[in-house]
């Protein structure tokens, strides 16, 4: 894997600056060891628990990093974002913390609990007639009409740098980590964490994990160019993206060891197992890394950190057969 490509849109200093910028507003989430997961996987496993982050996922890191860099005039015009859930909540809470107006465009099939949480944080939610394929266009139309600033969910330098602070915390707390498994949707988390981790410890191997029904990232990684797909039908609602972002893909190609996927049945069983054995609430997207390890899709070298990206679980899934 190449290291330190001059063409990359974000570098380690951007991530370090983001860490200082957002530190007063976020939790430094725990990196929890799990004997039950380690025994089952046959390798030491620690979970980076972004499910315990404010707003229930890593997304607030990038949202805050972006909003904190807006000028006073830009803040006065408010922000608009498009998201199926966790980015929506991250932007909504970040805007509330900074006293800004936020409008969030969410598809009509978004998880109801995520929609309600977004509203609870004070954002206006627009969903009527919105699909996964049209949400970004609707958001940009609102921005054009109102002057609000668009905060993209992943294809943005500020978002990547904010997400990358997760990687800084992992390698700082656990210097012996050899492999990191990361959920992959649009690529904000995977690109940011892989860049941070490999910039500090070049020997670390980073893997991206997707749902099999939405494996555009896996296909893109294999083919060497971005592959777009139709809206995927998967319980991993945080990974229902149609294509990886351009900026994200440039970093992923440079810093990631491999990208693989797991099916929904395996993912659902992993969510249940993780809840029973670790007592953590983990949403399906957040469990992708654990599922890949259990399914043998990744053979990590040495100790492995798994990023649990979110915990905003639709509890109705637990009743599924």
Helix content: 40-55%
Average predicted local confidence, pLDDT: 93
Please tell me the CATH architecture of the largest domain by its name: 3-Layer(aba) Sandwich
Biggest sheet descriptor? 6 strands, mixed
How many structural domains in the coordinates? 2
Shape: globular
Q: Roughly how many Å is the radius of gyration?
A: 18 Å
* CA distance, first residue to last residue: 41 Å
Report the total helices.
13
Could you give the order of the helices and strands?
HEHEHHEHEHEHEHEHEHHEHHE
Question: Strands of the biggest beta sheet: in what spatial order?
Answer: 1-2-10-7-8-9
Features:
4-stranded parallel sheet; 13% strand; single chain; 6-stranded mixed sheet; 321 residues; 10 strands; Rossmann fold
Task: Give me a quick take on this structure.
The protein is of the alpha/beta class. The chain contains 13 helices and 10 strands. The strands form 2 sheets. A 6-stranded mixed β-sheet has the order 1-2-10-7-8-9, sandwiched between helices. Strands 5-4-3-6 form a 4-stranded parallel β-sheet, with helices on both faces.
